[in-house]
Specification:
By secondary structure, this protein is mainly α. The protein has one domain. The protein has three helices and no strands. The protein has helices spanning 4-34, 37-68, 78-100. Helix 1 runs antiparallel to helix 2, helix 1 runs parallel beside helix 3 (78-100) and helix 2 runs antiparallel to helix 3 (78-100).
């Protein structure tokens, strides 16, 4: 089981990442209103994927809080879950850049 400092670091990064994804989703929603109709579906799909990743980050933050309270469930895969979350966020950012071109 990771120590408390590692769990707190993951908790802070997940909350920060969730905030960034929420801002990005808001940007996509406003951008969707101003683009041509042929690109609206692309931006809507990207926005939904961003919101799913946002909910995943909030779930990981909830898992960190549960581990800090003494529940050992999920402590072994916490850092792997963080890596998956970061990779998904990077993929969303790359897709967002490609979609805006």
């Amino acid at each position: 089981m990771p120590d408390n400092n590692t769990i707190l670091a993951v908790l802070q990064s997940e909350i920060g990442l969730a905030g960034l994804l929420l801002v990005f989703a808001g940007f996509l929603l406003t951008k969707t209103a101003s683009v041509a109709s042929q690109y609206k579906t692309r931006f809507k799909i990207l926005c939904v994927v961003t919101l799913v990743s946002f909910l995943g980050d909030l779930g990981l933050a909830f898992l960190c809080v549960r581990i800090l309270k003494g529940n050992p469930w999920g402590a072994g895969s916490l850092l792997c879950d963080l890596e998956i979350s970061l990779a998904l966020t990077a993929l969303i950012g790359i897709c967002g850049l490609i979609a805006s071109i």
